Structures are given as structure tokens and as C-alpha cells.
């Protein structure tokens, strides 16, 4: 086994580590702690956070890539080990090879037969035209009628295993967090639901295609799960790239005023006057032309897809900093009029020190709110961009690519609904959780809303 | 007032120049005309002559900014920058890579876009305000909290889902209207009703939630309490007091969008086969026709700037305290 570190893997782990450190440092600040406590003291906040955490966990597991060592079939006498050209992730292994069971073409959820008729031979060896049996579904059944009972039996068994796993995961939490003032019960219930359904999916997918297969015969459930990494990474990395630009320019414009302010204002007005989608499309297309003309940059196909993905995050970040910049500029303008900043000036504190110690900490809440708000918007945008043809690489699983590939399938008879359902469902759950969480974060951190509630 | 408008228009010039420079850098400096020719001609091993021919045909065979071979003013005008970017200011969009006149294309395709976007916009605002007012009437109750949750859930659904779902349900299952297409004469409404419906429904979540916050902000003001103390009915408070006062923040968000209605919606138009500017842009992006993309960027920026100007003017109309100077 040989680990492979893609650029996006490195970035996402860097992001997680720095966020952890950031929050670790924030713990010392009693005000911030009080606000986070407010977010987590609602059951809704706990549930939404647990769901988001589960998605992030899947994305992280799916970001641990490696290449399998190939067995040496020709018994060559070299010590050299050859590696598979395909990049596998830890998540692929954990799902028990869900993504390696391909069919020939479409098949419905839990189906035993393929969706399209083919020429096959019947028991007597004659050529007939019928639905061929699937290669990886219901092989263990002796008769198709046993299917319902078999699914039920396997589900019950999976649920029992799931409950055992829940007990293992939740009991230590319960022992540690008994009597805490936060509604942990809500989180535990969500965890139990997620764990049980995960166990159910993995164990049933060994015998059936839970969400059917798509045109290429790939398992739809597995593709939907792979879409999680793309969605989560895009939502976080694009904002991460935007933050330094927006914060630096916004704070400088609001603090120094004068010509700096004029230049920054001019920059963001110009940028925001260009229709966003056109700017993104144009930039992505230009990058595409560049990659197509220089194909030798990347060794593995996945690296090329990854480079395109990073470029997409970069473009989304660079084209969307104007809103945050405007907000931060306005806030900094207000802050730099306040007494403590004036006092710092009078004491002769340097500009950089005032900015770092007095201004920046007071705009953190805006950054935080924008970060959470933008996340869901970016996840939704990914689907639209893929539809326009400027999204992530088709070889990289994403909800947008799934929807794009399946949008004409609804007009078939009988309807192929499972691909769209899978993609939309997993996207909806993530975006809903993020939206609910961002509402709570905004309520807790936005001084305007918290003031209003205090006075009411 | 007039002086103000003129000054704002003059301020718009540097912004448009900036937009132009930015698109020019993107399209010609980051990607040289040679790269573009290679990708337009299709294959990896294009001969240099073919590239030269293509550049000659499309007028990319000039220097970027400064032509040292020409004399006098022509040093500046006989360049790609002047040909492709400065001309945009005179609304001379030139020809697309496939040879069609962009100006006529834009002029004819603008109207179908508007035919879909304007009803969506107006009906959407009406529906959103009504829903938000209804929710505000029940503020603080369980109904209000439930409605906010529904709004957030509606917001979390992908726009593509609304379109695909609408087409599937209304056009395919119920067979009420055609799935897609457009006609200029006869029963135009038949083709318009579904795109408009989808656009309105897709906007309810975010829209109604936003209006609700605006109305709530007003509902906590002192004048509302006074009105209630005077014995005004809840309905008259809502419509005579809260609604007019919430108009100013509504205008900020809404008026700026009006000129952009001409641009249409990329997704709606391509799914419903409406020959507007949205699908025009999408086709241009898909066929990598950069001449069209460039022109559309320019038109979009102009419309946005007009929108900002309209916003300011609408303030004076809605709020007599605001004087433009």
C-alpha cells in the first residue's frame, strides 16, 4: 500500500487542524464560549451539528487515499512493488466494496433483474430476449419470491448489529457527559440513526443495490456517498480561499480610509457588477483550455481531476469575496470610531497592533456567520455549475454530475427516479443541516439579533 | 436630481473600464489568442499556419495593447484591445466565433427572456410578501416557528430539483402544459406558465424568510405599539404601518435586480427551451464562444450599474427624508 496525498486532501486536513486549534484558543474567551453554548443548548442545533459532523467525517475518511500494491503475478524476481493505477480511499474500504460491484446498465432499487432486455439463453439453451439477472444482486436466493423475507431478515440483523455499535459509541459519551447542561440526548439519537442506517447500508449492499444502478451500472448509493466529499470540500475550501482576501481588504479599507478605501471599493464594485455565473464559467473554461494544452502536468488521472477541483474552489473563492469584504469594511469603519481604538491611537500603539488586537477580533463573528452561510450556498451551486458544464471533473463523483447525467431519465418509461432521488436526498440533508445551523450561529453571534432578544 | 444622475453615470465609467480590462486580461492575456485558436480548431497538433489563418479570420492577429508598426493614433486603435474591448462601449459587439452578429442576436433574444423573467419577478414578490405578512401575523406562535422551518427546508432544495420536479409533475404526469418550447404567436402563456410557476415556487423559501425578518424588525418599533394603543386593527397595522415602512429595505434588495431581468435565467431557459439570453449564454459557454461571453459580461455589468442607480432614485420616491445631492 502506498499513500497518495492529493492537494485537496492536504488542504482539507490542514483546514480541520487549523479550525480545531482556532476553537481551542477561543475556549479561553468567556464571551465566545457563552455564545457557542447558546447555539448548542437548543436541540435543533445539536441535531444539525451532529449531521454536519457525520458528513465531515465521511469526507475526511474519503480523503485518505492510497494505491493498492498489486500482486506480482508473473513472479518477477524484482524487489520492486507495483501499485494499482486506481486510487482508493479508506472510505471505499469501509463500505465493503460497495463501489466495486458493477452491473451492465440501469437497475431499480433492490431489483434482481436488469432494467433493459438483452439477448440471453434460457434453460434449454435457446436464444430469448428477456431481462437478464443482475450480477451482484440476490445471488444467494434460490427463488426470487424469497426476496422480501430475505431483505426483512437481513435488515433486522443489520439493525441489531447497528444497535450494538451505537451502544459502543454512545455509552462512553454518556458516561463522560452525564448531567451536562446541553441536550446531548438529541445528538445521541441522531448518532444512533446515522450509525444504524450506515450499518444497514453496508450490510445490505453486499447482497442488493439499495438505490439501484445508473446507466454505467455503478451503484447509485455509493455514488451519492462519494458526492459527500466533493460537496463538503467545495463548501469549505472556496470560503477558505476567499477569507484572506476579503478580510485583509475589508479591514484595510475600513481602517485606513482615504485612497485605500477608494481602491478597495472600486475593486469590489467592479467585481460584483459582473454577473457571477459568467465570470465563473469564463474562468473555468480558460483554465480548462490551459490544462488541455498542457496535458503532461499530471501523472495520474485523479490528480488532473483534483487540480481542476482546486482551481474551481479557487475561482469560486476569488469571484465571491465582495460581499464579505463590504460587510467587514462597514464593521471596521464603525469599530475604528470607538473609544478604545482612539485610546490606542493616543497611546501610540502601532497600526498593525491595533488591527490585530482591537479590530480583527471584533469582526470574527461576521467571518463566522459568512463561513457557515456560504457553505450551503456553495454546495447548491456545485450542482448548478456541473449542469452548465463548468463544474467538477466528470471522473470525480459529485451530486451535480449525477443530476446532470440523470436529468433526461425521468422522461423514460418506466421512470428512472433513483439516481436523482439519491443525489437530491443527500444534498438536501447536508444543506438543510447547514442552513439550520447557520441560523442558530447567526442568532447567537450577530449583535443586532442578540441585543434585540435581550431587550425583549 | 438630474445632476446626481449625471454624476453617477460618470462614476460608472471607471467601473465599466475595470470590467473591460478584467475580461480582456482573462480572455487575451491569461489565454493567448494562440491557445484559443488551438482549442477552437479542436485538435492538439494544429499547424502554425492554421492558427495564423484562424487568427486572421477572427481578427486576433494584432498586438494586444500597442501596435508599433502603425502610425499616430492607429498605434492605439489598431490593436486587439481596441477592436474587441473598447468597441463594446459603443455597443458594437461584433461577430461571434461562428460568424453571427451578436447585437441582433441580443436584441431578438432579449424579449423571450423578459417574458419569463418579468412575470416570475412580479408574481414572486407578490407571493413572498403575502406569505411573509401572513406569517408575521402569527409571530411568536408555534405556527411562526413551523413556517420558518418550512422556509429553511424550501431554501435547502436545489433549484434543479424544482425544475425537474415541476416538469415531471405538471408536464409529464398531469399533462397540463408542454414540457418545454416557445412560440411567439398564439398561446404563448401555455409555454410561460410552468417556467414562471417553477421560478416563483423555488424563490418562496429564501424570499418569504427575508421579508419576514424585515417585517419583524418593523413590528418591534414604537410606532407599531402606538398604533395598537390607538386601537388600530392588526390588519391595518400590517398593511398601513408595517408594509410602507418596510418598503425601503425591500427596495434595496429588489430594484437592483430589475434591469438584470433582461438577462433571463440560465437554468430555467435551458431546461424549458426558451430562446432567451440565458440559453444564449449557456450555448456560448458550452461551445466556448468567448466573443459572446465577453459581450454578455459587458451587458450584465451595465445592467447592474443601472440597477444601482435605479435603487437610489427609488429611495427618494419611497422615503421623503432621502434627498439625492
Determine the structural class of chain A based on helices, strands and strand pairing: mainly alpha
The helicity of chain A comes to 55-70%
> What is the β-strand count of chain B?
0
The parts of chain A where pLDDT drops under 50 for at least 5 residues are none
Assign an overall shape of chain B. Answer: globular
Percentage of helical residues of chain B?
Answer: over 70%
What is the number of helices of chain A? 16
Distance between the termini of chain A: 61 Å
Tell me the series of helices and strands of chain B, N- to C-terminal: HHHHHHHHHHHHHH
Total helical elements of chain B: 14
Note the run of SSEs of chain A as H and E. EHHHEEHEEHHHHHHHHHHHH
Residue share in β-strands of chain A: 5-15%
Strand order in space, largest sheet of chain A? 1-2-3
Overall pLDDT level of chain A: 85
Describe the overall structure.
- The complex is a heterodimer of chains A (456) and B (325).
- Chain A is built from 16 helices and five strands.
- With 456 residues, chain A is mainly α.
- In chain A, the strands form two sheets. Chain A has a three-stranded antiparallel beta sheet with strand order 1-2-3. A two-stranded antiparallel sheet of chain A has the order 4-5.
- In chain A, helix 9 (276-293) runs antiparallel to helix 10 (301-319).
- Chain B has 325 residues and is mainly alpha-helical.
- Chain B is built from 14 helices and no strands.
- Chain B has helices spanning 2-30, 33-41, 48-58, 74-77, 80-85, 102-137, 142-155, 159-173, 188-219, 222-230, 234-254, 266-272, 277-286, 290-318.
- The chains are: A mainly alpha (456), B mainly alpha (325).
- Chains A and B meet through helix 8, helix 9, helix 13 and helix 15 of A and helix 1, helix 2, helix 7, helix 8 and helix 13 of B.
Amino acid at each position: 500500500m502506498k499513500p497518495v496525498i492529493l492537494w485537496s486532501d492536504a488542504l482539507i486536513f490542514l483546514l480541520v487542524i487549523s479550525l480545531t486549534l482556532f476553537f481551542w484558543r477561543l475556549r479561553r474567551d468567556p464571551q465566545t464560549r457563552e455564545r457557542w453554548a447558546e447555539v448548542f443548548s437548543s436541540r435543533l442545533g445539536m441535531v444539525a451539528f451532529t449531521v454536519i459532523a457525520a458528513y465531515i467525517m465521511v469526507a475526511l475518511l474519503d480523503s485518505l487515499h492510497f494505491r493498492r500494491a498489486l500482486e506480482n503475478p508473473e513472479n518477477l524476481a524484482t524487489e520492486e512493488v507495483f501499485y494499482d493505477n486506481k486510487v482508493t480511499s479508506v472510505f471505499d474500504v469501509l463500505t465493503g466494496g460497495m463501489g466495486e460491484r458493477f452491473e451492465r446498465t440501469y437497475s431499480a432499487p433492490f431489483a434482481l433483474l436488469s432494467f433493459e432486455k438483452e439477448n440471453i439463453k434460457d434453460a434449454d439453451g435457446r436464444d430469448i430476449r428477456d431481462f437478464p439477472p443482475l450480477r451482484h444482486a440476490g445471488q444467494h436466493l434460490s427463488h426470487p419470491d424469497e426476496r422480501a423475507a430475505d431483505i426483512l431478515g437481513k435488515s433486522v440483523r443489520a439493525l441489531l448489529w447497528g444497535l450494538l455499535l451505537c451502544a459502543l459509541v454512545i455509552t462512553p459519551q454518556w458516561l463522560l457527559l452525564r448531567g451536562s447542561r446541553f441536550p446531548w440526548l438529541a445528538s445521541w439519537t441522531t448518532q444512533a440513526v446515522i450509525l444504524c442506517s450506515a450499518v444497514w447500508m453496508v450490510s445490505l449492499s453486499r447482497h442488493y443495490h439499495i438505490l439501484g444502478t445508473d446507466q454505467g451500472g455503478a451503484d447509485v448509493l455509493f455514488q451519492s456517498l462519494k458526492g459527500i466529499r466533493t460537496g463538503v470540500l467545495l463548501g469549505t475550501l472556496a470560503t477558505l480561499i476567499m477569507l484572506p482576501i476579503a478580510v485583509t481588504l475589508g479591514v484595510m479599507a475600513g481602517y485606513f480610509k482615504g485612497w485605500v478605501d477608494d481602491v478597495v471599493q472600486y475593486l469590489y464594485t467592479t467585481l460584483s457588477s459582473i454577473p457571477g455565473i459568467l465570470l465563473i464559467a469564463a474562468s473555468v473554461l480558460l483554465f480548462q483550455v490551459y490544462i488541455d494544452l498542457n496535458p503532461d502536468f499530471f501523472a495520474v488521472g485523479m490528480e488532473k481531476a483534483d487540480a481542476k477541483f482546486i482551481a474551481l474552489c479557487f475561482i469560486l473563492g476569488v469571484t465571491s469575496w465582495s460581499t464579505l469584504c463590504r460587510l467587514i469594511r462597514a464593521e471596521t469603519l464603525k469599530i475604528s470610531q470607538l473609544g478604545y481604538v482612539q485610546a490606542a491611537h493616543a497611546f501610540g500603539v502601532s497600526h498593525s497592533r491595533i488591527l490585530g488586537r482591537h479590530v480583527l477580533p471584533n469582526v470574527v463573528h461576521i467571518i463566522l456567520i459568512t463561513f457557515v452561510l456560504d457553505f450551503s450556498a456553495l454546495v447548491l451551486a456545485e450542482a448548478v455549475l456541473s449542469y452548465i458544464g463548468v463544474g467538477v471533473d466528470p471522473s470525480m463523483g459529485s451530486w451535480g454530475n449525477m443530476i446532470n447525467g440523470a436529468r433526461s431519465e425521468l422522461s423514460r418509461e418506466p421512470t428512472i427516479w433513483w439516481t436523482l432521488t439519491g443525489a437530491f436526498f443527500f444534498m438536501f440533508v447536508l444543506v438543510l443541516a447547514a442552513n439550520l445551523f447557520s441560523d442558530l450561529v447567526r442568532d447567537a453571534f450577530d449583535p443586532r439579533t442578540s441585543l434585540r432578544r435581550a431587550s425583549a | 436630481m438630474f445632476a446626481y444622475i449625471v454624476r453617477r453615470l460618470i462614476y460608472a465609467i471607471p467601473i465599466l473600464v475595470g470590467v473591460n480590462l478584467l475580461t480582456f486580461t482573462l480572455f487575451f492575456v491569461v489565454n493567448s489568442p494562440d491557445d484559443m485558436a488551438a482549442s477552437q480548431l479542436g485538435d492538439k497538433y494544429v499547424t502554425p499556419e492554421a492558427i495564423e489563418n484562424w487568427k486572421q479570420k477572427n481578427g486576433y492577429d494584432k498586438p494586444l495593447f500597442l501596435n508599433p508598426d502603425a502610425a499616430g493614433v492607429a498605434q492605439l486603435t489598431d490593436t486587439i484591445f481596441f477592436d474587441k474591448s473598447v468597441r463594446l462601449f459603443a455597443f458594437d459587439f461584433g461577430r461571434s466565433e461562428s460568424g453571427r452578429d451578436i447585437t441582433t442576436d441580443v436584441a431578438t433574444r432579449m424579449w423571450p427572456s423578459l417574458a419569463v423573467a418579468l412575470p416570475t419577478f412580479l408574481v414572486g414578490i407578490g407571493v413572498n410578501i403575502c406569505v411573509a405578512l401572513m406569517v408575521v401575523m402569527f409571530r411568536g406562535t408555534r405556527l411562526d416557528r413551523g413556517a420558518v422551518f418550512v422556509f429553511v427546508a424550501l431554501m435547502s432544495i436545489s433549484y434543479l430539483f424544482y425544475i425537474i420536479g415541476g416538469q415531471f409533475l405538471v408536464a409529464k404526469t398531469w399533462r397540463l402544459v408542454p414540457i418545454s418550447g416557445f412560440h411567439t404567436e398564439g398561446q404563448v402563456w401555455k409555454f410561460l406558465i410552468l417556467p414562471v410557476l417553477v421560478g416563483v415556487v423555488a424563490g418562496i423559501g429564501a424570499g418569504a424568510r427575508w421579508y419576514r425578518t424585515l417585517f419583524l424588525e418593523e413590528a418591534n418599533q414604537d410606532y407599531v405599539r402606538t398604533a395598537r394603543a390607538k386601537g388600530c386593527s392588526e390588519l391595518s397595522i400590517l398593511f398601513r404601518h408595517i408594509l410602507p415602512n418596510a418598503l425601503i429595505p425591500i427596495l434595496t434588495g429588489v430594484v437592483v435586480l430589475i434591469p438584470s431581468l433582461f438577462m433571463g435565467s440560465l437554468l430555467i431557459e435551458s431546461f424549458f427551451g426558451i430562446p432567451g439570453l440565458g440559453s444564449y449564454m449557456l450555448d456560448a459557454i458550452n461551445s466556448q464562444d468567448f466573443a459572446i461571453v465577453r459581450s454578455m459580461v459587458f451587458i450584465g455589468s451595465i445592467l447592474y450599474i443601472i440597477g444601482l442607480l435605479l435603487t437610489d432614485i427609488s429611495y427618494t420616491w419611497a422615503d421623503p427624508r432621502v434627498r439625492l445631492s
